[in-house]
Amino acid sequence: MKREGAVLGIMSAIPPIARSFKSNEIKLLLMVSILTASLLATSNTTTKSITTRLTKASPTTVVAIYPASVTGIIVGETFKVNVTVSNVNDLWAWKAKFSWNSSCVSLVKYGSGLCDFNITEGPFLKNVDSTVFVFTPPNETGGYIKEMTCQLLSPSGATGNGTLATITLNATSPSTSLIWISDTLLLDWVNSTYKREIPHTVVNGTVKTVACLCDFDRDYDIDNDDILYFVDAYIKYWSGQGKDPLCDLDNDCDIDYDDILVFVSAYIDYWTP
After folding, report:
1. What is the pLDDT of residues 20-31, one digit of tens each?
2. Pairing status of strand 93-100 against strand 62-66
3. What is the C-alpha to C-alpha distance for residues 113 and 248, in angstroms, rounded to an integer?
4. Rounded to whole angstroms, how far apart are CA atoms 255 and 236?
5. Residue-range domain boundaries for the chain
6. Distances (CA, A) of 50 to 47, 139, 212
7. If one looks up domain 62-210 in CATH, what number appears?
8. pLDDT tens-digit map of 163-192
């Protein structure tokens, strides 16, 4: 009964326009479709020219943190991020510096040694042949691993998309901060004396840690301020003003009734002795 009452209370705070947005969204999509069809009908020559140029362009190789955004990690919880590569041809070896905000995130250790951290090689190169994967002792205070590097033991290469490394981290305090890579190098084996550098771009990530789930204002409780924050995010999402990732509580890329249930459950659990 408490849960149903809380759900009705939150739903009643949402204006009718937000709840009826889906029908308006359909109308908008229809209008966009009609306009797009008209433009294509009057610009056949230009469209064909653009299409031809696009098909000839080569995709850019990207080294990235994945997932790009990690949200809702409660202080004390561990989480993993990957260093990935996409659209690469004949990758033989790579290296990168990995950094994090040590004021709110730490590396997870499994022993007392200098390199006893949960940092593992991804399968991308290993799927081709045997590899060597090493990393320098992490600077825990500064929040970085100066170098992670991996190379194939044979003159071969990996092509496509995949994971290069996986790092396990722990949330230590509420914050929003970057997780980033730098000083990256990708190499293609050409011959025993020449390794070609592969041009690429880098995409970094963010992590949002919270004192507890649904403590959106990070004041170590779940109260009326958090209810107002969630309702505001819900209304904005269904009004087309974007998604607040903090309020996507079930991590399914939307803010809907399921997220209301998660919020209500967390609220009740917090206030139940």
Report:
1. 444 455 444 444
2. unpaired
3. 38
4. 10
5. 2-20+225-271, 27-56, 62-210
6. 5, 49, 50
7. 2.60.40.680
8. 999 999 999 988 889 999 999 999 999 988
